[in-house]
Amino acid sequence: MGGVNIYCGSFVGEDKSGTKFETVLSEVAANDGSPNTKKIVLGILESINDADDHILISAEDAGELIFPLTEYLQRLRNDISAGDRREYCAVDLLKACEVAAEEKEPIAIVW
Fold first, then answer.
1. How far apart are the C-alpha atoms of 74 and 33, rounded to whole Å?
2. What is the pTM of this model?
3. 11-29, pLDDT tens digit by residue?
4. Helix-strand-coil percent breakdown of the chain, rounded to 5?
5. Which of 12, 76, 86, 109 is the most buried (most CB within 10 A)?
6. Residues contacting 18, CB < 8 A, separation 6+
7. By three-state DSSP, how is residue 54 classified?
8. Which residues contact 38 (CB under 8 A, 6 or more apart)?
9. What is the distance between the alpha carbons of residues 20 and 2, in angstroms, rounded to a whole number?
């Protein structure tokens, strides 16, 4: 799946910033010890199997992902070279999660 975009309420991610969202979410779940984070990520990734052109992440789940995504992004920035597509995705996904929690709107991941 390529060319994935992230939308949430008043937030519109950069063009194709969500292309690495599956990788980012998998790495977030692997690095976060919380069973709740793993459950949320697994649910999101499983929803892809039934989707045609988009999935939605509930505002509640998005709010739960703010802290693990913040931690992931910090670790990623310490370990990668500039221009890594995971960082590009993580920045927009984190912003979408923050907007979702604030505006009580779901995140749309559209391909």
1. 16
2. 0.94
3. 999 999 999 999 999 999 9
4. 65, 15, 25
5. 109
6. 4, 5, 6, 89, 92, 93, 109, 110, 111
7. strand
8. 29, 32
9. 8
